[in-house]
Amino acid sequence: MTTNLRLHRYQEISEVLARHGLGFLVGITGLERWVPFHQGLIGHERRAEPYTNPDHLRLALEELGPTFIKLGQLLSTRPDLLPPQYQTELAKLQDAAPPVPGATIRRLIREELGSEPDLVFADFTLEPLASASIGQAHAATLHDGTPVVVKVRRPDVIPTIEADLDILQNLAVQISHRWEATANYNLPGIAAEFAQTLRAELDYLQEGRNAERFAENFASDPGVHIPRIFWETTTSRVLTLERIVGMKVNDLAALDRAGIDRAALAVRSAGTALKMVFEDGFFHADPHPGNLFIEPDGGRIGLIDFGMVGEVNDKLRSHLGVLLTALARNDPGRIGSALLDLSVTRQPVDHRRLRADVATLMALYEGRPLNQIELGPLLTQAVALMRTYHLQMPQELAKLLKMMIIAEGVGLELDPGFNLSVLLAPYARKLMLGRFAPQALAKRMAEAGADAAALFEDLPELLRRVTDTLDTAGLEVHLRAAELEPLVGRAERIGNRLVAGMIAAALIGGVGALTAGDKERWGSWEKPLMRGGLGAGGVLGAYLLWTSRGAGGSNR
Prior knowledge:
5-stranded antiparallel beta sheet; alpha+beta
């Protein structure tokens, strides 16, 4: 990454934002020093209807190229970060670009595969099937007659994207310090996750491995077709995969002409998505209609484009099980706690108010079992509630919600009577029962025991240090709450807020008020604690002191 390229991109980003009237973004990112002071900044296309701020943001991201187009597409799926009008507008972002000249494609094939396209393949069409900001696809035929698609990454795209990702990381840090409203969100963390996702999309070897993992997961399902990867003609910049021929899943007229049962197809396509999430724990994170094809003979579902994927680990699966259990019981308190568990919020939350708002939301669905609830509106309302309380979703959960909403949308387009919740109900029951299986309970008890052991192993050493410090005559002791976060975090992870309160209150409330001259008071307070003799009244007092001082990281 050259300094000149970074300098050029800083200037370009600031100029584009300013030209679209997004001065607020220029200010909070610290880009104002890059804005050129010359006329002609407002130069976008005119129209009779005034542009809105969401319009300007979309146009600016399109103008800034592939990194920012991908960023906008990601943000369009994050209702926890953006209000609906911005999501709707950013969903219109088109990842299209002028095609790369044929001579350049020839050179890239030669550099990657060692020979001219006409020699590597029996047939190679230089006119692309599609051209996007990162790469473009070409139809080709192998020497054995197999029709394939060859994806070729655009030349020189990596340096610009790497410069942009570095700049975005810096801008995220600037915004975090300049805009108080972002205190509840880990913007640098979001920028880092975005960079990781985009870099994975740039690597065609990784996309090939993703495709093979999906193929293995669906090996026993004749109704799903995952294209074969041809590794002999695949590199990090060139991907050769089996060509899938069929109708787009939202081409309803073509499906009807082919005699495809659309209601059954809606169930099969959604079932495919749910299997990925709840059985395989590895899912296609961008299953929009352009990536789903229906083969005319038998209606087999063909999937393409495996650059963006998501995973459901044991922790996320467990949290989803808690949430679904709380939903089934219509328990607002547990639902609120489950939303907190699913989030990565950084600020205290008013639990009582959250519980009341959840109760108001659940009243809309009272008396209706899960399989009679439209999932899309419920998810949208739940995420809107999370945004109200600044509860930021982890990246994998955001991908999962996006995939579920797309899956329900495809199903409803195929069959207006489709209900995803009917298919989701068995998985929900399995998740709920799985939480109370002997193996799951044993695992949680083992984890809790490990956390408790580590907590009490560290406690004597910390108290010894405090005692040693107080023995130093004339020294005033100040202990910051931040220094106790690892210790308190362990206590809270085993669900014992009283233990956390006792430790924090004893050390912060007691030690922070003492000086080395307070030896008499210290001695009478130290011994009962070290003997484990702090009574119920003392514990309650410590806990109330802890909560009243607002010292603590977790909101759960």
